[in-house]
Probable phosphoketolase
Amino acid sequence: MTTVPATTPPETTTPSPADAARPGHAAPSGTVRGATPWTATGVTRPDDQELARLDAWWRAANYLSVGQIYLLGNPLLREPLTRDHVKPRLLGHWGTTPGLTFLYAHLNRAISARRQPTLYLTGPGHGGPGLVASAYLDGTYSETYSDITQDTEGVKRLFRQFSFPGGIPSHVAPETPGSIHEGGELGYALSHAYGAVFDNPDLMVAAVVGDGEAETGPLATSWHSNKFVNPAHDGVVLPILHLNGYKIANPTVLARIGQDELGALLTGYGHKPYFFEVPDDSDEPPLVTHRRFAGLLDEVLDDIAAIKERAAAGDDTRPAWPMIVFRTPKGWTGPAEIDGKKTTGSWRAHQVPLANARDTEEHLRVLERWLRSYRPEELFDDDGAVRSEIADLAPPGELRMSATPYANGGVLLRDLRLPDFRDWAVDVPAPGGSTAEATRVLGQWLTEVIRHNPDNFRIFGPDEVASNRLQAVYDVTDKQWDAELYGPEVDEHLARAGRVMEMLSEHQCQGWLEGYLLTGRHGLLTSYEAFIHIVDSMFNQHAKWLKVTNHIPWRRPIASLNYLLSSHVWRQDHNGFSHQDPGFIDHVVNKKAEIVRVYLPPDANTLLSTYDHCLRGRQYVNVVVAGKQPTPNWLPMDQAIEHCTRGLGIWEWAGTEVPGTKPDVVLAAAGDVPTLEVLAAADILRNELPDLKVRVINVVDLMRLQDSTEHPHGLTHAEFDGLFTDDRPIIFAYHGYPWLIHRLTYRRTGHGNLHVRGYKEEGTTTTPFDMVMLNDLDRYHLVIDVIDRVPSLGSSQAGLRQRMQDARLRARAWTREHGEDLPEVRDWVWPGAGAAAELPATADTGGDNE
């Protein structure tokens, strides 16, 4: 794991309980130079000249968008269009793009007038050409990519790179300046937006929600995020529901219900909807359309400014936050018909309306008329640069949405002030000589992490922070809650501002955390292990984002995405089979080795060391699986740090090998319950077969098992063989599905000697030891595995093998008769540990909420 031993935190002034213990403090303002957020006074309505400039900017953005999809040459139509000017493969999405560029243009005007820091987040991520075009128009794209110059050749390169081999993707991607939301992340626009505004009081996120996206479960749930934003201490999300009527081939639900019904729905979600419509058959002059929307946007922003003013004056009631319902034709400004079939205002405009623009002269002329309808000769000067009076519509400097530092969170990232985790070490007088709930101990340390970082660290979880034993954090913070409050006799630890965010939706917790990280803060997500699968797709997209941004020099590293998975498979015996699934690890390790890390600390001290390491990380996804039930502590803190630094190691005190000779068998474990069973098996072997040379290995960092050529944490073959041998049986007890260990080690010399025990999809509501027996991970079965696989034993130990089988039968019968585990199992301690300092078992009812 390459953990660096902790150092004493730098000298700082500890926040007083009144100031930091109930943190609602926002990050210092002024992160965007020249900002004067939430201005409402002195803003004038645009005159005809400004409206004409706004329309010209919009036409230029649309022209550049269509050009990206279609053109290889003749970028400004300075000569008649020929088929050789058109790309051989036409890729991209047009339908949502003109609406996105229209909104971008109007937000530019508003930002310039109000000096309002704004992040533009587009749920319809396939509007990529529009966002690239907008960043080019305001100059950020050329500043970021110096070869995309502001001239005819630069426009040609801009067009050529789009959806072209060696170029950029067709959707909004990490390569797009100003973006934090990837085009493949359908359903998460609002959760990312709200995550971005937590602790960013000056920031507005204009979050465009596609009407196709609005049909997804995560998006439908995320409307409720407005109950978790504090008007005084957080920023503002302005949702814009973009109703253009169609998905790829079907109409959208919200576009096909009446305005009264839609308004009632959105009002019920807690919003104050403002409606704007451009009918499909509208012949309204463009300046009239622009004037109508500019007036509506100013009204909305004035409403927001008034809410912020009331909140600053002490009004802590939840407002009805404004939002915009923006109804426009699909493919607005495109060809009305192609081949006699309705195009604009239909599903046919969704992707590439002229999919074969090179095939006939008629189609080529349709494309040319479409491009020329934007009047490029009015938009670009003789050198091919956008005319200055148009470009000047964009705000200056960092107020440009494509240049905002909020979209490059590493620029704003501050290191966490981490207390020395060693101060929370549990006493381990001997291996197994004390007992603790590992996550409860972690929660005590996290309490101080929150105290030391009152404005840039939050914990996210779906109603499971206390259930996963992290409730000590409520000593210094509350759960943020801006819906109704019933008073402390009912609502424990609920407040208008807090560092814990709980909503019974893994999607929202993941999305909030991602938005929080992407805009330059730190956090963790805690969840029941079985239910983290709900965010598999979200994890995919975030891991892909990190992988791509690792290779984009201007993207600064952000804090790692940290998972804490507890209530895990082996101690979900009370909730049963539905709550038993360790497969998220398998999903995670599919991603690039440079991104993913998986840790299985076996006790409280190794968990503390592991999580200190994770919170210091950048650009990783860290998955930590740790139990919350009372379990033995194996390592004192100094040894725990060394063990975590190595990532795995031999526990010499547990084995019986003879120095200078090879062991007869290797017992390995990864995970807290597998570690317990391996040590219990080693104890049996020590007593029953004292001459057998047993080596015990514990693995914390799962990726250490992989080949060093495949993962940066991996062992070389020589290192692996030195630990596990190249010719001795290896009995490996693993927390998850057994085949993952085989997958990680298939290149190893001794892989044929490896036998893995783990979860094999057997579970029910039963006792903890019966759970491990159901999956053949128990100590008795591990001893049987040793007998079966060590050649020198074989039939000579048939009697011991039979006694182990009988012990399994006896343990099973005991649970059926008494409803608890056999005393010899339940009360077992490692030899020399003495009477372990046991904590009382804690009843767990958290799973019922799922």
